[in-house]
Amino acid sequence: DVKVTQSSRYLVKRTGEKVFLECVQDMDHENMFWYRQDPGLGLRLIYFSYDVKMKEKGDIPEGYSVSREKKERFSLILESASTNQTSMYLCASRSYSNQPQHFGDGTRLSIL
Amino acid sequence: GQQLNQSPQSMFIQEGEDVSMNCTSSSIFNTWLWYKQDPGEGPVLLIALYKAGELTSNGRLTAQFGITRKDSFLNISASIPSDVGIYFCAGQARGGNNRKLIWGLGTSLAVNP
Fold first, then answer.
1. Which of A45, A103, A106 sits opposite B100 (nearest CB)?
2. Handedness of CA A81, A82, A87, A91 (dihedral sign)
3. How far is A11 from chain B (nearest CA, A)?
4. What's the pLDDT at B109?
């Protein structure tokens, strides 16, 4: 079974802090994704990576950056956290483009 | 970004009833996926569809890839309390955006025991 592990289930940070969300997958998948999920808005893609050191903007990249230095790890960075970034963050991975994405359990991030 | 039209938005049913939900798109897709999300968890893949007209079952769940390639439906037969959750459809087209999934907003299912 595919295992996608997000480093924290719950996280509380302060406005202006730099925040790192980590995601690790154990299936040697090529592609990895970061989404945020808000009530009534569904899943919105922030960034994705189709290979090591490669990244592409999703639909809502503003205020975020990502890092993929190793194939198994994809990090989401909030450069200067703001209250409107309070949300559920979901990481996903897949082997290649026409295969399903597999999700981690999510990180519920609160910015105070 | 683009979104799929998923309906109904929510359902409240009695245990034992059958459930049907669907997704439509203005674009042609080559892949349709159905996921379920339990409260506080990440979405879990239920069924993946790769060919127009394909009908696939997973236990009490059945999903179909529409012939026009612009729609898909998911049926749940004889619902039970653990079916409660949010069900999402997602589609993927071949071509320039072939690495991204397009998502529906979800169908929230409540089951009365």
1. A45
2. negative
3. 14
4. 97
